[in-house]
Amino acid sequence: MTSSEKNNNRTRSEPFTHFINKMDRLFSERPPKGMLQSLDEFFGSTKERGFPVEIQESNSEYILTATLPGIARNQISIDVLTQAVTISVRQPEKQHKHHGMFQKDGSRGSMSRTITFQKPIDDAHVTARHRDGILTLHLPKIRGNRIEIN
Questions:
Q1: For residues 150 and 147, what is the distance between their CA atoms, to the nearest angstrom?
Q2: For labelling alongside 113, which of 29, 71, 81, 149 has CA 20 to 30 A away?
Q3: Are 50 and 111 in contact, with CB atoms under 8 Å apart?
Q4: Cα angle: 34, vertex 38, 51; to 5 degrees
Q5: d(CA 87, CA 79)
Q6: What is residue 39's predicted lDDT score, i.e. its pLDDT?
Q7: CA distance 26 to 98
Q8: Neighbour-count burial of 122, counting CB atoms closer than 10 A to its CB (0-12 exposed, 13-18 middle, 19+ buried)
Q9: Contacts with 109 (C-beta within 8 Å, 6 or more apart), sequence order
Q10: Predicted confidence band of residue 26 (pLDDT cuts 50, 70, 90)
């Protein structure tokens, strides 16, 4: 086997090796967050799947930050469910006239991420802000009644 064949085989196996290492870490370490959120981060962390999302949690709310460079506010759609949020992004085709003909740059596409949470979300009080390619959602938690045991 020549050195170029070895390099070619190594290049093909690197994504698989990366996947196996991530699987080992997922099941051997105790997830610092909930299992569903850890699975979402595991499967949502590849570049092909979408855009990066960070989640911070306090006693009263989740703060979700999505990095969406070059995306306008009107291209973003947010759906809030009881314990999940779906952020969808539409990317329109760009057209320009060149020598009397229309030419399209790139293809129209869309990206989407669904993030699940351990506690229910108060969807009536969710706020969203989009500035400089950063989407920030404040998702208040619904507080249940604590019951004393006699």
A1: 9
A2: 29
A3: yes
A4: 130
A5: 7
A6: 65
A7: 51
A8: middle
A9: 91
A10: low
